[in-house]
């Protein structure tokens, strides 16, 4: 952002705010400076394909072939296994306690498996049948993770991952 002109910074900020408010991807361009950028939601609830490139994974957790968005928090119905890949035959890499809440970073495309996360790190896969979506508790912030790419006329594209949270007061 420091190589960007103020007008580019404002356009990038507006696009990011729009993406977060509408829970969908956004893009911007500035023909005067040649700069552009895009915001790709990583953790959303819109069912769109998502990219998890650059996501940190816990030890023993592997990336799957493809993901769809599945944003939100999920609570374990009872004790549940976290698997290293989306299969009941995959190694167990952890457990969820009954009632424990995790973030759904994504849904494995064409399956009933969620990539569970804590603090933006993929900690394992859990079958959708053993968790249920939760509503945010009163006062709890709603968080979304997104990748922002900035392209300037003279520089190489730069992508950063961010998590933004909104509490009930805005």
Write a brief caption for the model:
This protein has 170 residues and is mainly beta. Strands 3, 4, 5, 6, 9, 10, 11 and 12 form an 8-stranded mixed β-sheet that branches. The chain has a 4-stranded antiparallel β-sheet with strand order 1-2-13-14, with helices on one face. The chain is elongated and about 55 Å long.
Please outline the helices and strands.
Elements: H1 6-22, E1 26-30, E2 35-41, E3 49-50, E4 56-57, E5 67-68, E6 73-76, E7 80-83, E8 92-96, E9 101-108, E10 113-118, E11 121-127, E12 131-134, E13 142-151, E14 158-166
Parallel strand pairs: 4-11
Antiparallel strand pairs: 1-2, 2-13, 3-5, 5-9, 6-9, 6-12, 7-8, 9-10, 10-11, 13-14
Q: Any low-confidence stretches, pLDDT <50, length ≥5?
A: none
Mean pLDDT: 84
Distance between the termini: 24 Å
SSE pattern: HEEEEEEEEEEEEEE
- Note the beta-strand portion: 35-45%
Helix content range: 10-25%
Class derived from helix and strand content: mainly beta
Shape: elongated
Continuous helix count: 1
Main beta sheet, described?
8 strands, mixed
**Count of distinct strands:** 14
The radius of gyration is 18 Å
Question: What does this entry look like structurally?
Answer:
- The chain has one helix at 6-22; strands spanning 26-30, 35-41, 49-50, 56-57, 67-68, 73-76, 80-83, 92-96, 101-108, 113-118, 121-127, 131-134, 142-151, 158-166.
- The strands form three sheets. Strands 3, 4, 5, 6, 9, 10, 11 and 12 form an eight-stranded mixed β-sheet that branches. A four-stranded antiparallel β-sheet has the order 1-2-13-14, with helices on one face. The protein has a two-stranded antiparallel ribbon with strand order 7-8.
- The protein is mainly β and 170 residues long.
- The protein starts with 5 loop residues before the first helix and ends with a strand.
- The protein contains one helix and 14 strands.
């Amino acid at each position: 952002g420091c190589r960007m002109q103020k007008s580019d910074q404002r356009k990038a900020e507006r696009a990011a705010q729009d993406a977060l408010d509408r829970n969908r991807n956004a893009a911007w361009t500035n023909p005067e400076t040649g700069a552009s950028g895009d915001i790709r939601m990583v953790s959303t609830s819109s069912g769109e394909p998502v990219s998890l490139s650059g996501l940190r994974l816990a030890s023993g957790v592997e990336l799957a072939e493809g993901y769809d968005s599945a944003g939100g928090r999920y609570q374990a119905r009872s004790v549940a296994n976290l698997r290293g890949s989306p299969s009941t035959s995959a190694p167990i890499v952890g457990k969820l306690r009954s009632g424990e809440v995790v973030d759904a970073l994504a849904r494995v495309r064409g399956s009933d498996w969620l990539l569970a996360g804590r603090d933006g790190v993929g900690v394992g896969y859990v079958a959708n049948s053993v968790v249920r979506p939760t509503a945010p508790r009163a006062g709890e912030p709603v968080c979304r993770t997104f990748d922002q790419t900035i392209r300037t006329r003279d520089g190489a594209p730069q992508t950063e991952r961010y998590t933004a949270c909104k509490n009930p007061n805005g």
